[in-house]
Amino acid sequence: MLQVCAAEKVSYEESGIDAVVFTAQGDMRQALNNLQCTVAGFRYVTADNVFKALNNLQCTVAGFRYVTADNVFKHCVRSEVIPACEIVHNLYRMGYSSDDILNNMFRVCKTASIPEFLKLEYFKHCVRSEVIPACEIVHNLYRMGYSSDDILNNMFRVCKTASIPEFLKLEYFKEIGLCHVKVVEGLSSLLQLTALISRLCLKQNQLSK
């Protein structure tokens, strides 16, 4: 990607390249297409420009950037249920479906960078049993309009590459998967996402006993 940018004399920020990689989900062809779209539309590759060009899920208070889902995991790791749920609820209130929210959580969980014991700050809160902060993030995403499915899918993707203990990662996969099944079956309310965050926060305590 960097070689292409150098050869084509593309101006970029590191966050922009990270956003391209994040949206490509490991597909180099998709990454190049995303890069081309961003350059064609804005000429300068930044995270915001990438998301705007692709009309992709972002997670910030002002928009939807990767960090929002990242913060959800952060609260979950700390068992901060309320903050994590608040984020998800915010996204939900903004019109995003449960499917959208879950998908974004999967994606963030795949590429987010956190300390070695945890890849994602979102999961950081869960590992620390910080339920409130984790729920706050999820609730915000939900209020911002992201679907439960988007949030869950993103959580799953982020969790795939997170630097957390394998035994805990497997438990997170199981919980996210079970929640996703419920969402696909039609139970896509904010309550499902809140319950998921609570279960993720409990896992660390349960497994450490």
From TrEMBL:
InterPro entries: DNA_pol3_clamp-load_cplx_C, DNA_Rep/Repair_Clamp_Loader, Rep_factorC_C, RFC_lid. Residues 123-199 form the Replication factor C C-terminal domain. One of its GO terms (biological process) is DNA repair. The keyword Endoplasmic reticulum does not apply. GO terms for molecular function: ATP binding; DNA binding; DNA clamp loader activity. Keywords: ATP-binding, DNA replication, Nucleotide-binding. The keyword Nucleotide-binding applies. One of its GO terms (cellular component) is DNA replication factor C complex. It holds the Pfam family Rep_fac_C. Gene3D superfamilies: 1.10.8.60, 1.20.272.10. Belongs to the activator 1 small subunits family. This is Replication factor C C-terminal domain-containing protein. It comes from Gongylonema pulchrum.
